[in-house]
Design the sequence.
């Protein structure tokens, strides 16, 4: 059975940032490209590595069975997938002889919007799970209202993307600013995922592997951002526009 | 294909943020030399048509068309998924099969297994060993059966499958929750199953409360079970 809900989520996650790129044009591509053209290879690599990670760690019995390996609904590890996508983007930047940080900073806000849209499209997949709440959605089969964590994550991620996009426009365009935008986007997504994971329904009592990874990434990104801000001495924090 | 152009270095990052620079110039009303050296030549705000052309109109058009097709398919596919089958178990209570025992069950036996569990929710998963999504979700159901042990029951029903293949698969994955074989096909007809796998949730009172067509996710399964336990 084709999971149209998941397919629709992925299409929205790629399509809405593509439309948004009309207004947030990508500046590090010459000739200009749409978001979907810029990100498709990286997204594909991310899904493949994320799925392989899940297979190796959780579903070893499915390894070697192509039909089962292709069922991405059964799990795609987020951070290994994101790492693979970033690696492909860096490779693309080097091929185009563009600074890698600048390329990543160029794509980060739209990528965050795409991730936010994917989270919000939980309404098409599983009805957006969350803790019982007097306000919220009532997914099929659930007798009470639940707080739609996916939609809350989406709002937080998109708000962070808007903030980082505005920062990229207001600050002097140099590689150090690009580093702050890239690390800031990783920090925002990891912190939001870390907080949201506390409220998502799960099996077992402890933290899940994706939750632990999000916490680790948040710690690393926070430390890196602190170092960039206070330690390296190379960041201009003035909001002065280009002079 | 490599583009034959001079490398863009960090010192030339201005060109990479050209749209941002243009906007800043417009805001400050102070023309700045752009990448091509045409000072102030792009003073007008690009129109929507120019912007769309800039990011690839064909890509966007293809994308919108693709999205429309998927939306139509999704609406068609998901439509009516909230309708529950009119199935209500009423036979005399029976005890669940022991681990490792995968007996045949007709509809009356199946209903008896459900009524025997009244007072606790039951998740019934219809599956077949030839169905990859069914195989993929069974480790999740196994984890759920352990996590909700004593509070809820997971019951697998093998449908449209060779019994030996199904038993071999259960052994291979070390599945411990009870399974029966729908030997007559009556169970899948009574539950109005249309796709593999399908998961049904019965509440404490034995009434059917939810149906998940296709693979079930961990969040979805836990949310349904916790709701059935409330």
Sequence:
């Amino acid at each position: 059975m084709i999971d149209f809900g998941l397919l629709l989520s992925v299409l929205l996650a790629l399509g809405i940032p593509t439309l948004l790129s009309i207004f947030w044009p990508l500046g590090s591509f010459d000739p200009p490209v749409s978001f979907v053209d810029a990100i498709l290879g990286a997204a594909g690599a991310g899904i493949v590595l994320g799925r392989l990670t899940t297979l190796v760690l959780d579903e070893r019995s499915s390894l070697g069975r192509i039909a089962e390996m292709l069922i991405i609904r059964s799990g795609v590890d987020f951070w290994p997938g994101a790492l693979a996508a970033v690696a492909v983007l860096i490779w693309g930047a080097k091929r185009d002889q563009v600074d890698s940080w600048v390329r990543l900073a160029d794509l980060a806000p739209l990528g965050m919007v795409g991730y936010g849209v994917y989270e919000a499209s939980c309404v098409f997949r599983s009805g957006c799970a969350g803790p019982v709440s007097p306000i919220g959605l009532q997914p099929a089969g659930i007798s009470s209202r639940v707080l739609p964590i996916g939609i809350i994550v989406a709002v937080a991620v998109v708000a962070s993307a808007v903030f980082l996009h505005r920062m990229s426009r207001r600050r002097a365009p140099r590689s150090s600013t690009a580093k702050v935008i890239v690390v800031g986007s990783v920090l925002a997504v990891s912190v939001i995922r870390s907080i949201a994971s506390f409220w998502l329904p799960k099996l077992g009592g402890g933290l899940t592997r994706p939750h632990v990874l999000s916490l680790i990434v948040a710690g690393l990104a926070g430390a890196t951002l602190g170092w960039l801000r206070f330690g390296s001495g190379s960041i201009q924090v003035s909001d002065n526009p280009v002079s | 294909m490599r583009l034959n152009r001079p490398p863009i270095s960090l010192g030339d990052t201005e060109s990479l943020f050209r749209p941002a620079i243009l906007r800043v110039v417009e805001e400050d009303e102070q023309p700045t030399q752009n990448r091509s050296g045409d000072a102030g030549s792009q003073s007008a705000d690009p129109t929507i048509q120019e912007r769309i052309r800039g990011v690839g109109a064909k890509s966007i058009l293809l994308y919108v068309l693709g999205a429309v097709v998927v939306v139509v398919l999704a609406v068609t596919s998901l439509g009516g998924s909230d309708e529950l089958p009119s199935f209500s178990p009423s036979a005399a209570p029976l005890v669940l099969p022991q681990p490792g025992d995968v007996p045949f069950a007709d509809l009356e036996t199946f209903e008896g297994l459900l009524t025997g569990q009244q007072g606790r929710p039951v998740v019934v998963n219809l599956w077949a060993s030839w169905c990859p999504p069914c195989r993929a979700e069974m480790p999740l159901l196994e984890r759920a059966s352990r996590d909700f042990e004593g509070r809820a029951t997971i019951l697998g029903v093998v449908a449209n499958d060779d019994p030996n293949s199904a038993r071999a698969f259960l052994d291979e994955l070390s599945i411990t929750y009870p399974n029966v074989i729908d030997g007559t096909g009556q169970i899948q007809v009574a539950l109005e199953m249309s796709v593999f796998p399908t998961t049904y949730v019965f509440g404490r009172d034995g009434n059917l409360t939810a149906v998940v067509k296709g693979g079930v996710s961990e969040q979805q399964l836990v949310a349904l079970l916790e709701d059935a336990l409330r």
